[in-house]
Amino acid sequence: MNKILPYGRQYIDDDDINAVIDVLKSDFLTTGPKVTEFENSVAEKSNMKYGVACNNGTSALHLACYAIGVENDNEIIVPAISFVASSNCVLYCGGKVVFCDIDENTMCIDVNKIEQLITPKTKAIIAVDFAGQLCNYIELKRIANKYNLLIIEDSAHAIGHSNYYGDLVTFSFHPVKHITTGEGGMVLTNNIDYVNKMKMFRTHGITRDFKEREISGDHYYEMVELGYNYRIPDILCALGISQLNKLDNFVKKRQEIAKKYDEYFGNISLKNYFDNVYHLYIIKVNKNRDIIFKELKKEKLGVNVHYMPIYLHPYYQKLGYEKNLCPIAEKIYENIITLPLYPNMTDDDVKYVIDIVSKYI
Ligand SMILES: *Cc1c(COP(=O)(O)O)cnc(C)c1O
Fold first, then answer.
1. How close is the Cα of 345 to the center of ligand 1, in Å?
2. Distances from the Cα of 165 to the Cαs of 152, 171, 178, 328, in angstroms?
């Protein structure tokens, strides 16, 4: 094999390209009709009422934390292993991150370890649908109800399910995710108050955007909060709408490839307790992970490691999180390797991955 097989890659076709070109020729490059259409399409597909699109998955998480009113002193429970954005969003709002250990079979938050972390200051749980698998929302909902907590579902890995369970659900449209807008994100919710707050926060904390002013014919607006510019252009939303048409096929293809991998690596891969749309295919090796990792790289496999426990990053260490806080997360981090997985892998690509990985494990 003379090309490198990356761990993830976008799929763009002529429909996507034409959708973008059409917007470039239209009146609105940003904050026009494609934004609303994209919001409605993603919400409908995911069986949620409302969508608020934004410029990436990280700002989606920030919007969600703002919507539920995370502020100084609030404690938010976050799984120890995820992308750093899953907990950074809490810090943006001045909240405190309380890391929870993960389930070593699924790498989702360990629902049996949440209750011991809850204090009177706990406000919410950020649940990450890790690698594409839904968390245990039966338990998460029970705990949230019992202690009056909210759930933010970071589903950056898991667009393509038919139902979601968080009070707010966030997606990312980065090119390695299931569908892409280049950069982009969205928050879904059934709560119109959250929608209004997030739309205001997305555009500088200003009460009426320029379109509403255009329609009403007057110039007046007020800035009532210190918001941000988290808007996503129409150009990108057109790409998102076009990508969304292909999402079911993307997921089917990912699941088929995962099934083939399972034949060879099923005994060392993560386990499925709930539906999985397979963003990542992760195997666990008992020892020599870094040596195996380097060998696989030499063989042109774009393997990766998702992820180091967040609190081991220097920034979080400076905040005072101690080593050994979440022992399962730290142990599993030493063993995991993510294999290439994306919809337009050929049968030969898949066979190549299986042959090479089998050589080293
Ligand atoms: C990708 C990702 C994000 C952030 O999304 P961006 O669009 O890159 O900002 C957040 N959480 C998780 C779990 C992710 O994988």
1. 23
2. 9, 13, 19, 25
